[in-house]
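Bench log, entry 3. Co-assembly request; chain sequences pasted below exactly as received.
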Amino acid sequence: MRRVKKISKLLGLGLCALGLSVLSQSASADVLNDIVKRGELRVAVQTQGPPVSFVDKNGERTGFAIEVVKMMAKDMGVELKLLDYDWKGLIPAVNSGKADFLAADMTPNAKRTLVLSFTEPYLYSDVVLYSKKKQPFQKWQDVCKKGFSIGVVQGSSNVGLLKKLCPDTTIKEFAGGGPAVAQAVAADRADAGINDIASAAGYMVEYTDFKILDGAPKRWPLSFATRPDEHHLLRWMDNYFMLIRNDGRLEKLADYWMRGPVWKKDH
Amino acid sequence: MNNIILSTMPFLLDGLWMTVKISLFTIFFGSLLGVVVGMLRTLDYAVISYPLGAFIHALRGTPFLIHLYLVYFMLPLTGISWLQLEAFPAAVIALSLYTSTYVAEIVRSAIQAVPRGQSEAARSTGMTALQSMWFVVLPQAVKLMIPPMGGVYVIIIKGTSIVSVIGIAELVRAGEHATQRHPKEMMMIYGLTALLYFAYCYPVLRLARWAETKFGSVRLPS
Amino acid sequence: MDWILDFYNYRVVAQYLPEFARGLGSTAWISLFALGISLSVGTIVAIMRMSSNPLLWRFAAAYIQAIRSTPLLIQIYLIYFTLPALPLLGRRLDELEGGIIALGLNAGAYMSEIIRAGIESISRGQIEGAMSVGMNYVKRMRYVVLPQAFARVAPPLLGQTAVLIKDSSLVSFIGVFELFGAGLVILNERLMPNEGFLTVAVCYLFIYTVMLWLTVYAQRHFGGSGD
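Structure output for the full assembly:
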């Protein structure tokens, strides 16, 4: 009986300690101050998501988001620490405070902005469909019909888009990213694939028997995101995008990385 | 095609090395924890057995990704400083917990497979329960544990492919990254990955099989 | 109960119940069919492995080693992408068929080792008893050895089934919608990892618990003494 009492006392103390430590977790309301104090900017990026963030054939981490974030750190006057995660890991990384913000091609929509705060879009990205040249499709609406199948990256915004625009078409979601979809198209497992224009242009370089269908069903706004209560950081980022848009740096980066296959040549 | 092989091999080899590192740490800690849990399970005290059993079933019945998520993302939210884990330690901890459930059952089966006569004889010479376990039962049980551990090792190696969610570039994910760079060569790159996998796993399995013929095996883990 | 909403917004999860139900059903069916294939293949391969005919046991051993030493994802890709049109079907395997067969063949290798251990553990006494009653090999296997062997190794079979159920999430790589993908829907549409992952965990645990009860029932019902 005494032992049981002792154990339950220890348990109680342990729980109290846990509870107190949770309470005493000081949440700084301004991570931007923390960044400047510690001299380091921590950004969550996707491990492999060309052309936004990926490791190129020389083993270097590069991509649109990487270049922007490097500029940000330099202009902030701090070091940059890149934390890379699978797509699924980006949001928990920001929520748990491991990263100050995430730099990816995420589309802000009404439901998502309930959970994270997004910057004003840094870019509007066209989405296109692609298929094998020998298919009879000319524009994307041709494949948006009953009896055809379109491959899409699992969990991307394009899934909802296709379900709305092409309700009668078979939609196949592939885990494994854009290349998995391209492979499916190449193996005749899907009549067409859908992706952003930069990735699709990249596949055209690899798969010479592919073609891009005319028309773009959608232009997605792309933003960076951070925790909802980091107002200062969010305003800083919006301001920064405005600055680099004004001096032309943003357009140059966008043209190189996000609007065509140019990035593929060097990486 | 050859220069694609040449350019991707370094990354795949880096990934393989990361897989080896994680699996080595995991087999060590996972076995340690598993031995402790397995021994506790043989004691048959309901107070210990039921919670441990529930723990083992909970870990077995849920995907490893969730364990990883809990360890890496949710533990830090408690605010306790030593729970703020980096990716590699978090991966090893989560994978070790998962592994320990398999090791625990192997250990338990092995201990129970040693004939009761052994521990009874040991006790009758005046050894305490602990001494009989340490000097008589455990050494005989260890021999029986070795063959099934080969299978556990393969489970670990499978599990490492999931730690890529928190950014660790192990072998399978290195292969996926290479396919992002060269989408057309996807099948070939995955073929290379399979080959490297095989080069790592096959010797382990052969070793386990040799151990089985030498030492005999215990009834397989539950 | 409102404090739970901070951590796990069950109201949002309720809005996605159709997706979770679809995913749960998909995973359950895929696992069931793959399990059936794996047990059948496993038994056959186990018997082949125990045969003295080198043609049989070498093939079985090679199959087991090949499966166990390569990643499941690659096996799935091989079956889905590289297999040509099959003669009997007249077409290639579709995603569901390819996924189930790949899972079944993969688990079958592991099951065969477990089943083999079970068969080998049935004492000679049982076999001799069956022989003395006039049963031939097939009858012996069917009525005496296999039922007891399966009941004996029911726990390790359950462990392997748990692995199979979780491995089934890999079919999302060839476009099949399953339980884990359902969880990712919440993650992608709402950016809520807790709700997505924890719900998925509970669903998987549910499937596992059902299998656990089935195993316990089977063991009690069919397990002979074996000795």
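DSSP finds eleven helices and no strands in chain C. Chain C has a mean pLDDT of 86.
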